[in-house]
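Researcher: Last one for today. Full complex below.
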Amino acid sequence: MIKTLKILFFLIIVSYQLIAQQLIAASAKIVVDSFSLGKNRVIPIGILIELEKDWHIYWRNPGDSGMPTSVEFDLPEGITVSEIQWAVPEVFEFDELASYGYEKQVLLLTELIIPENYQANSVSVTAELKSLICKDVCIPFNTTISEEIILINNFQADDNVSILFAQTRKNLPEVTNDFELSFTTDEDFITLIIQSLNLDLTKINSLYFLPYDNGIFKNTAEQYYKVKDGSIELKLEYDHFKTEELRELLGILVFQFDDTAQSQKVYEIKKQINTNN
Amino acid sequence: MNRKIVILFIIFLSSLVFAQQAKLNESAPDFKLTDSNGSEHSLSDFADKFVVLEWINYDCPFVKKHYDSKNMQSLQETYTAKDVVWLAICSSNKGKQGNFSFEEINKKSKSHGAKFTAYLIDEDGIVGKMYGAKTTPHMYVIDKNGMLVYAGGIDDKATTDVDDINDSKNYVSTALDELLTGNNVSVQSSTPYGCSVKY
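Model: Here's the assembly. Have a good evening.
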């Protein structure tokens, strides 16, 4: 009897500690930026995830470990939501492994699209967040959050919220037609040849590529690049357990032009790969 | 002269390390590890048998998903009954999550009702790195000729949610069923998911 009580007490303590750890380590809420319904029927919203010191959450591609953060929305009929726009992640390298994600806080941006014939004066938004948060250990961070958004013509968000949206938008990869991309490939590597119409690529300090899809490239591999005739050759190593043949190179190129964070420029790239070239 | 010898020696050592990297459709690198009862096991002890390697860390939420649901134990029981050798390998370093004493390991394995052939301890991470183990779980299947024929996740649902197990495609059981019926493995690699191995 005493042994059973001891086990029960131990289980309660462990469960309490786990729940407390999860509650303390991360929180999530829906935030809304300023909008004007008169102009268009789009409302900028975001899932704001705040993390305690040393904890991180994962990008759309988590890298060598962890899991992709995902959000599923439950919305009134007729209202749709755009795809999440992912801010440029940090790279966490440890024990010869690399993961991609965010520390401290991240805002997952999206937009609600309200149809003309939507009659109600508010929108109830529910988001189911599925994620994992880690430091030296990992715990699931799964939560359901809700927000009632009143549909007024001109909504003005708090300054702090607007600043957060502005900072996050600044940290999104740019979609551009500035690059001309070509490649050569063999069994172990793909070499991406990048030419730019507007950027002086001879002045870069560092460059790396982060893929949207996991399992094709070696995440930990040093990415070597060289400037040649005004263009750049970036060499990416395939994971030797790669899960499929590369058909499309999709991800972000992160350029650093000097040591300051302001000099970072990030572009989304998309390139069909026809290995018969 | 001495410098040349040192450089050549380093190149020789590097080539040995490189040669030891596990690759699909090549001989699985041999290893010798001690189990949680103090007995030694080499991969070469199991020549002529199908072998599963399961990277494990009992405290990882992804490992818990597959042990709390009994999914892993059920796979272990099913396939060891068919003469498959199932080796759980823990590469958690001293002081890191998942590194336990023999007594703790055996207690946890018993409470989970684990049915693996042995729980092997790889504290220095040499075998984990040789196989490129990134996550717990990370699964490998070796055929009767000692060739590595599968490397990757246990299934295609990269979540910690037990409810996802029933709807998932289990790559390990698929590979083993194919091998046991004399077929080639149709899906040889997948992206592993889980906690990082605590090297």
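Residues 53 and 87 of chain B are 5 Å apart (CA to CA). Confidence is low (pLDDT under 50) at residues 11-18 of chain B.
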